[in-house]
Design brief:
elongated; alpha/beta; MgtE N-terminal fold
């Protein structure tokens, strides 16, 4: 048995995707939204129900998200309880709050009783505390859900469901088969039967195939697999996703510190985690904070403004760098022509380097301890790219000077000095920016900050300042 904790990390290959149930795929587009709005305003409930019967719950959830709040509430109210519960599990937090706004605590409890404990805990956790306390005593699995709410939402405990099939290690195949039948109503998807000892510690896994093909009198300990992977309840959800991806698992048992089985995580929960983490990284890269589509203008502004302020401060520092070399600009006007080249190339090189580094850190393929090797490789790449780009820039300046165009209408000796300055500065700027792009995400990761943050205004602003400083330092030396 292998128990995973935060010290374990690994590659993240493609995740296995469960097969969808057969049915009709109805694309949620503008035409469908317009059609549903017309049916709602015409109070044609029969046509709406007929349409909803053809759709998957996930598509109904997407449709509700595309409608206005009032229309979304009306559409949700037309769903049968079982289907409404499945749709509720597919909605994001804001849309759940909208469709449940006018629902009584009895109605909310009725919906949550149709869900697995992990989904019910997610919905309940998003409600305000007073409302959640009114709903919780009415739930069939109140004790299990209350326990799940104690775990942080981004841990294995927050992801897991408490529905699973387990049997004693003293059980026979016949008894295990009967247990599967008995719990079939409660457990939607049975991937494995868990075998536990007298202290509820997990000691083995039993696949359904092995269970069906074995003689009924056989003890489960004779056919179970005792080489399996578990995760502890406090493991971060990103690590959970990596574990399931590494071992191609569709179901993962969760244990407490004593090794007792407390729940399981299924592949659909992990896919949601990967989507959420990807969205968070994109928002961090863009410097937009934790922003939702339904957030108000004030909430969106509050998330974006700090990063824009950081960018403004960086621009002020960049302007200060330029002002320090005002005398050089007045004497050699051609220096101004290369400022946008240096800042743009520094930003592009840094983003390329940082993107690969952040991707490696996020997937677990690059460990912070590998930082020196990664930076060394990026340094080699920077030198190669810097040489090629510097040569191209030098040839372009020479061609412009040969035709006596604008600022480049210079004497041969002066033009040669400009070419030397541009070539050296571009090589230095690209080398520095590429190295920073690889190093900064690693440093942020080491101190517990999401490395994706480094790809936003942080890296680009820092490289603007450093790039201009290096450029003007080289120019001042050559044109002193």
């Amino acid at each position: 048995m292998r128990v995973w904790s935060s010290e374990n990390a690994g590659d993240m290959p493609d995740l296995p995707v469960p097969q969808e149930r057969p049915g009709t795929f109805v694309p949620v587009d503008d035409a469908l939204v317009t059609r549903v709005e017309a049916l709602l305003h015409a109070d044609d409930e029969t046509a709406i129900r007929r349409l909803l019967d053809e759709m998957f719950e996930a598509d109904v959830a997407a449709l509700i998200s595309s409608l206005s709040d009032d229309d979304g509430q009306r559409l949700f109210a037309l769903l049968p309880t079982a289907e409404a519960a499945d749709v509720l599990a597919e909605l994001d937090e804001d849309d759940r709050e909208t469709v449940l706004e006018d629902a009584t605590s009895e109605r909310v409890a009725e919906l949550l009783n149709e869900l697995d404990t992990d989904d019910a805990a997610d919905v309940l956790g998003a409600l305000d505390a007073a409302r959640a306390e009114n709903v919780l005593p009415q739930l069939d699995d109140a004790d299990e859900i209350r326990e799940l709410l104690l775990y942080a939402g981004d841990t294995a405990g927050g992801l897991m469901a408490t529905e699973y099939v387990s049997v004693s290690r003293r059980a026979t195949v016949a008894e295990a088969t009967e247990e599967v039948r008995r719990q079939a109503e409660e457990v939607d998807e049975v991937y494995n039967v868990y075998v536990t000892d007298e202290a509820d510690r997990l000691v083995g896994l039993l696949s359904l195939k092995r269970l069906l093909l074995s003689p009924s009198h056989t003890q489960v300990t004779e056919i179970m697999d005792d080489d399996f992977v578990t995760v502890e309840v406090d493991l971060d959800q990103e690590e959970v996703a990596r574990v399931m991806a590494r071992y191609d698992l569709v179901s993962l048992p969760v244990v407490d510190k004593a090794g007792r089985l407390v729940g399981r995580i299924t592949i659909d929960d992990v896919i949601d985690v990967l989507r959420e983490e990807a969205e968070e990284d994109l928002q961090a890269i863009a410097g937009s904070g934790d922003e939702g589509l339904n957030d108000s203008a004030f909430q969106v502004s509050r998330g974006r403004l700090p990063w824009l302020v950081l960018g403004l401060l960086g621009c002020i520092l960049s302007a200060s760098v330029v002002s320090m070399f005002e005398g050089a600009l007045q004497k050699v006007a051609v220096l101004a022509a290369f400022m946008p080249i240096m800042t743009a190339m520094a930003g592009n090189a840094a983003i390329q380097s940082a993107s690969i580094t952040v991707q490696g850190l996020s997937s677990g393929r690059l460990l912070p301890s590998d930082a020196l090797g990664r930076v060394g490789k990026e340094l080699g790449v920077a030198l190669l790219n810097g040489v090629v780009l510097a040569v191209l820039l030098g040839l372009a300046i020479f061609a412009l000077g040969s035709f006596h165009l604008g600022m480049f209408d210079l004497p041969a000796a002066e033009l040669a000095r400009v070419i030397l300055m541009a070539v050296l500065a571009l090589m230095a700027v690209i080398t520095l920016a590429t190295t920073n792009g690889a190093l900064i995400p690693v440093l942020l990761s080491r101190i517990g900050i999401d490395p994706a943050v480094s790809m936003g205004p942080f890296v680009t602003t820092a490289n603007d300042i450093l790039g201009l400083t290096v450029y003007f330092s080289i120019a001042t030396y050559l044109f002193r």
